[in-house]
Amino acid sequence: MTVKTKSKGKKRDYAAEYKRRIARGTARGLSLSQARGHPKANENYVGKSKPIADNKLQISLKSLREGNSLSDAAKEIRVSPQRLRNQARQLGAIRKKGNRWIVKNTLPRKMLIYSDGEATPIIIDKFHYASKLGRYMAGVKRFLRTNDIKHLKPFIGKSIKDQKNKIYIFETNPNSLYRIATSGNESFEQVYRIII
């Protein structure tokens, strides 16, 4: 009795496939690194990679704002550093500073503010206002944790403007802050996002 063996298909020639890929890419006007699928930092990615979901992109941008490297930020959302860098660059969200990638300060941000007895999400397009609001909300958090009014004093009578130049005065009334904090609204961290 003879045992039939499966005939193996034609063996792939990876070297030839790679050469054809490079030739097709350079014929389209791509650089060698782009044709290979690994563009340099100053080049656009031309592949068809699936876009990173906005919530994951926000996590990676937060990681970069906290001073982590692009590789660490990419690892946090389980994508390659090249994929994160390419998408974030194409969206205009990051820039190179020295040998590190950082989030641009000029991007508008959606943030939560306590003003006029309410928690209101607003869009801020100026970094110094975003920074001021961040300090205020951190002060409110410390006040709610310690009941020490000294954390609110630097913000009494202070305000910021949103993207449409509407003025919001910081809420510093302790009773109003307690009421807002227990009303079940979204937190500052849940609302915060960079608009890209």
- The low-pLDDT segments are none
Tell me the quaternary state.
Answer: single chain
Element order: H for helix, E for strand: HHHHHEEEEHEEHHE
Q: Compute the number of structural domains.
A: 2
Offer a quick outline of the entry.
It is built from 8 helices and 7 strands. The chain is of the alpha+beta class and 196 residues long. The relative contact order is 0.10.
Descriptive account of the structure:
The chain is of the alpha+beta class and 196 residues long. It folds into 2 domains: 16-40 and 49-103, Orthogonal Bundle (Arc Repressor Mutant, subunit A); 109-194, no CATH class. The protein is 41% helix and 15% strand. It contains 8 helices and 7 strands, in the order αααααββββαββααβ. It has helices spanning 14-27, 32-36, 54-65, 70-76, 81-90, 127-146, 174-181, 188-191, and strands at residues 94-97, 100-103, 109-115, 118-124, 159-161, 167-169, 193-194. A 3-stranded antiparallel β-sheet has the order 4-3-7. Strands 1-2 form a two-stranded antiparallel ribbon. The chain has a two-stranded antiparallel ribbon with strand order 5-6. It is elongated, with a radius of gyration of 25 Å. The termini are far apart. The mean pLDDT is 87.
